Amino acid sequence: MHPLLLRARAKIRDATKPIGEALVGAVTISLLRTARYFDPIKTADFLGRLTRLIGPLTREQRIGRANLKAAFPEKSPEEIETILTGVWDNLGRVAAEFAHLDHIWEHDPAFPEKSRIEIGPRTHELFAKLRLDEKPALIFATHLGNWELPAVAAVAHGLDAAILFRRPNSASANEIIEKLRAVKMGTLIPAGRDAPLKMAEALRNGQHVAMLVDQYFTNGVEVTFFGRKTKANPTLARLLRQIDCPIHGTRIIRLPNHRFRAELSEEIEPVRDASGQIDVQQTMQAITSVVEGWIREYPDQWLWLHRRWR
Fold first, then answer.
1. Is residue 118 within 8 Å of 112, Cβ to Cβ?
2. For residue 65, what are the contacts with CB-CB under 8 A and spacing of at least 6?
3. pLDDT at 8
4. Under a CB-based contact definition with an 8 Å cutoff, are residues 216 and 143 in contact?
5. Closest Cα partner for 112 from 123, 120, 103?
6. What is the per-residue pLDDT across 190-232, written as a single tens digit (0 to 9) for each?
7. CA 157 → CA 61, 96, 101, 131, 167, distances in Å?
8. What's residue 18's pLDDT?
9. Going by C-beta distance under 8 Å and a sequence separation of 6 or more, which residues neighbour residue 47?
10. CA distance 204 to 197
11. Which of 130, 137, 221, 301 is 20 to 30 Å from 34 by CA-CA measure?
12. Shortest CA distance to 221 belongs to which of 278, 262, 274?
């Protein structure tokens, strides 16, 4: 294509970008506000069906299929498609549940069988230790099950948490999303250049700092994930070099009948080099291996739709 045409196309794209972001923001606000007026379970069922219908028509379907074929070469095409259907269903449900974050957490230790959230005895023990030991900690999570709920769980059970999150491009959408998150999600740290400094400060103040660790990070360290090389965000391991504290993983798995199971992993031992210093790359590999194990258990609940390998 002629250079003049390329420049013209770039100018048009730049000029229309704010319009597109404003449109996305308006749609996001409308959907979130509307969803709050409806029963959360019925809304989750509806959006799950909707994303199962629309998802296969998008380019993300091709990305997800390619990812799954590479990760699970032993699975048949039918099994791959079944997993993809579950991925879209889970995504729709997470979107619906996000609108009800301020009241979705239902767990009563006295009547666990009547609670929407299931928590095992070992997770109760580990969580109590984190809450009572008067130490900071690093918590990692993934886009598995409902990935918004771990932060809600922390605050609901008295854990002083600081959560790293990524703002959407639309300022108007970001405003309503931050309001929803701020209700019961602890201290919110937006991703950006100063995020590591704020996370380190939170740890020094005794808070429990949490972040998602399963997306491709351009300037990250190399790790192996499902047998393929990719890049992982090294922030968590680098923070350990500054503040020595425990590392735990957390996940909230979707169960039948609109229920969830919350789990906290045993403490993950960081890898150290010969001098005793935290080995950032190997520590992130250890965390990535835990994440891979989780996903192998519930492949239909992980977000295969992004380009994790590049």
1. yes
2. 80, 81, 84
3. 43
4. no
5. 120
6. 888 999 999 999 999 999 999 999 999 999 999 999 999 999 9
7. 37, 23, 15, 9, 26
8. 44
9. 92, 93, 95, 96
10. 11
11. 301
12. 278
